[in-house]
Amino acid sequence: MALKVFHLPGAWGLVSVSPFCLKLDAFLRMTGIDHESLTVAAPFRAPKGKAPWIEHDGRTIGDSTLIIAHLKATFGVDPEHALSAQQRGQAVAIQRLIEENLYWAMVHDRWIEPENWPILKRTVLSGLPGALRPVIAPLARRGVRRQIKGHGLGIHTPAEIAEIAQRDITALAAMLGDGPWFFGAEPTETDAVVYSLLANIAFTGFASAMKPMIAGHANLTAFLERFRGRYYP
């Protein structure tokens, strides 16, 4: 059975405004795995209720990390094959920084900051049926607000969230250093993880205190352009 990949829609030149969808798409481009990419307005059919998800060999798999693990095992590809055990550990730590902390600062910007809510409704939620949108949008926003508070980030003030994000972004810049990629001369899965989130901050139309933080690190801005030029020319 052919590999089918389901993503949330794109905007501002990004193939998806979901970092997890963009991460998977970048991984697929990086490895050259043949697939059919399908855009969906909302993840109603997703096995875990979130995008992305895939259908392959009679299986439906959700969660970008689990999907990538399946693809590595099934297709015998691994962009991290040359990494040492120490580097693989560092890769996991970077992924956790991105997906378990900095991601929520991005979500707060998009869903909670009043100036961004109209932008989100006309972009991220634009694919929802017109009659349902006025009902679903506020319900979704309340759900996201509960998730952010449950994570812990949502109990902080915007200034405190900005301080947390600043530490994460500064740490990423320090780990990248002067290299073209996070682990040497060739990109790995870690580069796809970092690109997917930073691009969804730097290249989108949402207002964010994190944009000047990223722009303040020349190596991060060069990294974004390098990755985009290689995989999204």
Put the structure in a nutshell.
By secondary structure, the protein is an alpha+beta fold.
Describe, in plain words, how this protein is organized in 3D:
The protein has two domains: 4-75, Glutaredoxin (3-Layer(aba) Sandwich), CATH 3.40.30; 85-231, Glutathione S-transferase Yfyf (Class Pi), Chain A, domain 2 (Up-down Bundle). The chain is globular. The longest helix is centred in the middle third of the chain and has 27 residues, at 85-111. Strand 3 (53-56) and strand 4 (59-62) form a beta hairpin. It is built from nine helices and four strands; from the N terminus they run βαβββαααααααα. The two termini are 30 Å apart. Helix 3 packs across helix 5 (133-151) and helix 3 (85-111) packs antiparallel against helix 6. It is α+β, with helices and mostly antiparallel strands. A four-stranded mixed sheet has the order 2-1-3-4, covered by helices on one side. The model has no long low-confidence stretch (mean pLDDT 95). Helix content is 56%, strand content 7%.
